[in-house]
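This part of the workshop introduces the protein records we will be handling. To make this concrete, we reproduce a full record directly below.
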Amino acid sequence: MDTEAYLERIKYVGPARPNVVVLQKLHRKHLLSIPFENLDIQLHKPIILSEDAFYNKIIRHHRGGFCYELNGFFAILLKKLGFDVTMLSARVARKDGRFSREFDHMTLLVQLKHPWLADVGFGDSFTEPKRLDTQSPQADRGKDYRFTRKNGWTLLSRRINGTNRWEAQYKFKMTPRKLSDFVPRCIWQQTSPQSHFRKGRLCTRLTGDGRLTLTDTKLILTRGREKVERPLQGLNEFSTLLQQHFGIVLS
């Protein structure tokens, strides 16, 4: 893999040694530059979990992807730069209080002086890695995150704005995983009628002061706690906005 092309794709300039500061900058730059999107699933184009497929899609074709692609590719970059990275399987929290199946999400353990959780593939979540060896709340752009542990699981939660209540994000164990371990669930995400990735098109990216999200029906611009939604005008506007705001042109 051409690491220089990857760093150029995320507009990263500076030292690339394996330390906390570099990890934080890489993580944030990645979220600002590479969107979370499910467009290939809507196009019925198979998503392949391999370094070559990631490189062709994200670097050469200036695309984004979903968790297996984004975190899978980020893990490869970090390893090339000398970081100690482990892929972890996570189960995502549902509205009914239950959790999805194993391998439903990929997240990353980065071991430096302290263990850190990195995740560039969970959409609207933390923007910089979070320390795993503390249960104290960790602030991130006006939101608080924390880890709690029970029965071998580590639970990531986010504080609900203006309250003392915490909302579960996902839970995981420290069992090391390989990219190939995620293939069956990745296929399920693409093909099952129950997969929420098949419900409609989505493309979203972090911005300097919020988030930009495009769906089949609307464009959503978030700045801080202010959210502005605009309905799409006609069938062709999705492609126009996709190119204008995300630099993506679909063949």
